[in-house]
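Q: My collaborator sent me two sequences in one message, no labels, and asked for predicted structures for both. Can we handle them in order? The first one she listed is below.
A: Yes, handling them in the order given. First sequence, followed by its structure tokens:
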Amino acid sequence: MIAKLSVKQRIQVGLILSVAFVLVLGSNLMDRRHFSTIEQSVKSIYVDRIVVQDYIYQLQNHVHKMALDLIGEQQQFDTYHPQGRIDGLLGDFAQTQLTREEARLLGQLRQQFSALDLKDREPALAQLQRIGQTLDGLEQIQLDQGNRLTELSEKTLGVNRMLSNLEVVFLVIIAICIMLLIFYPVKIFQPIHWN
């Protein structure tokens, strides 16, 4: 037959249960924060990196077509006018979350496109080459930032896994303490008197 718990033992059980509750609650709040970080990283990888990579690809495609038109046999420099589409792509690009370097290069790209005069072949080809270099710089930023966000997500998942393992260990320890209190209440909490 199990002995009744004394007031002191009940306080200790309550204390252990309170600690368990606080640990589980704190762990849950940390898990939410980590999952929020991961969710933001995944969204940012798609919206701010993959979609932007498509904008850069489309801009490079327009630059390539303009360059082909300029060096074409017909010498009709003004046959391809994608300015409206380019402005739209640049506007969409500007709406994404930009790093400081991205914002600088995007501003530079806007200036380069606005200074582009397709009626003068040689300067236009040189300007298209500079535009291509700016687009290459923007593309490299996408790769670097995508890699950074992926590493952040992996790090956050690793911390989350570690915290989950610690939660399990703490819960097992607390369960053992509660079982000891229930099955061996008198032996554990009775003071030992040395004679």
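Q: And the one she listed second?
A: Here it is, processed independently of the first:
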Amino acid sequence: MNNIIPRKQWLSPEHILDDFFALNKLKGGEGYFEPRVDIIEKNDKFIFVAELPGVEKKNINVQLQDGLLTIEAKMHEDKESEVDNVIRKEIRSGFFSRSINVGQNIKENDIKAELVNGLLKLTAPKIKSTGSEVRKIEIS
């Protein structure tokens, strides 16, 4: 059984609330940023893809504990000196943490991770489910 909860369509109330709270974190969270994460389910594996442009591999931490997959990243930007005149500041820096409940149905020791062109891709093979066996109980 899949424990990962899919996200509704982009216009759903859940999506709108998620985006609202993400914007609040960005505004008042002192450097907190929240990149998007895609979760794809295949027959034999889950694939998680997180947008982390500008984040170096050494600043990414991925952990799995008790069925909770956590992706953390730090992004640093060059500091301006006092003589710099910044007209607009759109490049973000700060900290990102995202936890996803993946349950106990993935092979923890076989998860692969790669960072290519700002995308962190995690491939987590599923544990083959034997299915629940139905056994008839005789009534005496």
